């Protein structure tokens, strides 16, 4: 393919500090920047603006000199030629050989004209030119140019002479002489003033540098080095067919099968275990001891337990005496051995009953972790008194999170085919539909989704925006959300890559599609290059 830098009408050229040559084709886009006697080449892919760093470029300079471009470590290429020291237009042919395809591009490098040294003009000329070197005069705190001083003195002198000669009827000749002096002085003054303004105009006409800036027509000039620094990427727009999505308000909840609550059955005073109370974010295993609860017993219950312990101890004393007597009779052969065994069993049972009653009075309740997970909430400290069924710990598996959203009639929950969500910080979430409620809550239907591979910074209770697909197909241009930014007047705009180093803002009308993309309803045509990465940075260039 052979491509030149001409064809369709192009916008006005941008004034830069270095001569440039640009060209583009269906496959590649390049910009050459001349610095001294070396031409730096920036080669990018036309559709994506991605730098091409693995190409071989042969450059034909002026039609008769072929030079192989040298690849640099920063992904650019350089070409050196003595013809770059000339002036005027210089034809360049770039033969690109790369794994992504070969191409041939042609451009013209406009070399600057050489400055011509001129000798200083001699101090000769018309009287008006000689008078331009007259210095100024300071009157108090005001500096007045000498021509104005001369004009004022001449005017006063003429007026004075006119009064003196009025009686002799010579007013007209004298006034005419004063008018001549005044005209000459005024001409001198304007000539000197014009000379100063010409110097200021020359200073203002200095060429602009190779820096990003907004141009008078509203477009933005971004040189290729800045595009590489800002990591600008583009895409060619084309209509796509996909399912329309509806925006819903939701929040993050825990998977009921991968979360749990730790509560006390009877309540009491919290006692820290030997390993201490667990902290927030600590990973625990199922069965780990999280805390102890010392049960609070009323005084009546304490009295009843004490009496029961006394009764059991009395029965134990009677059983021990009976066992001693039966053993003596058994040793003499009077009582059978079975009676000794029966008394021993009775005594062992009484001792166990006494131990159970004692443990009931003093043994604390042990709180265990119901699942493997992370401590998501802890609302206790050592010594705190908790009531029955108070939530003491909440354990959540960070890999098992759901999203619960409310549907107010926007879509039929039974027709949801897919969904995605966006967290508060903009993190996209991929969702899997789980089900919806048959009972209304606050005039809305509750719909639940499972988060696939949730990020580590997501917390239970965080608000999210859900984009649920309802099965309705649409065909339009779909762009990433990062491509759409807000202009100075607040309208949604995208940046169109019109030329290798020029971008144009396009107002667009959008609709939500999913967590990461938008549907462009108006403002962009098929086949245009739109910035999809770095648009926010381009939008800030002034």
UniProtKB/TrEMBL annotation:
Residues 477-534 form the Multidrug resistance protein MdtA-like C-terminal permuted SH3 domain. The keyword Glycosyltransferase does not apply. It comes from the Bacteria. InterPro entries: MdtA-like_C, MFP_Cation_Efflux. The keyword Nucleotide-binding does not apply. Residues 302-360 form a coiled coil. It holds the Pfam family RND-MFP_C. Keywords: Coiled coil, Membrane, Transmembrane, Transmembrane helix, Transport. SUPFAM superfamilies: HlyD-like secretion proteins. The chain crosses the membrane at residues 145-164, 171-191. This is HlyD family efflux transporter periplasmic adaptor subunit. It comes from Microvirga arsenatis.
